[in-house]
Design goal:
With about 190 residues, the protein is α+β, with helices and mostly antiparallel strands. Helices cover about 40% and strands about 20% of the residues. The longest helix is centred in the first third of the chain and has 22 residues, at about 1-25.
Amino acid sequence: MKTVIKITLLLLVCVLSFQTNVMAQEYWDKSTIDAAFKKELIALGFEDGKYLDRDEYTSAHQPYIVSGNIIHTASISAFGPDGTALQGKIPTDVSQEELYVASRLACVGAIHHIRNAAGGDLSKVRKIANIRYLTLSEPEYIDYALVSNECSTLMVRVFGQTVGSHTRFAVGVVASPNNESFKINVIAYLK
């Protein structure tokens, strides 16, 4: 009987400890997230911190879908403030530094689509779950993680650690539509 009581008490302590950790997670408010996102856009050269809306989708191909509380984005290109995307393979056509910028540009594009999917309110995002990174590269290139880190850390700067940290998958590709150097797609959860 004493063993059963001890086990029960131990289980109770474990459950309460887990619930305390879950409740202690940090969720940023709308104004904090919006300010962080605007700061990233301005740093990338977007005037007034506003991302460009692009009219490149059709009724059959959307920039995102929402299924239940899950957001799935399409492949998002690294469009700069002038509307162009970096083109060419690393390391022959583009540099590592250019890819770092492309990673951040694709990331703000993803956040823009996620905001639209969340009805304009990024604080409704519960979790950035997974990001898939596709880099147009020569066979000898292997530094995908370094490029992916640019977007991964940007997600945490915008959403905070609790929401912005995620799993990821980064690979090189031998061909890309329009010879674009970098693309991502994201899976996120709404509250």
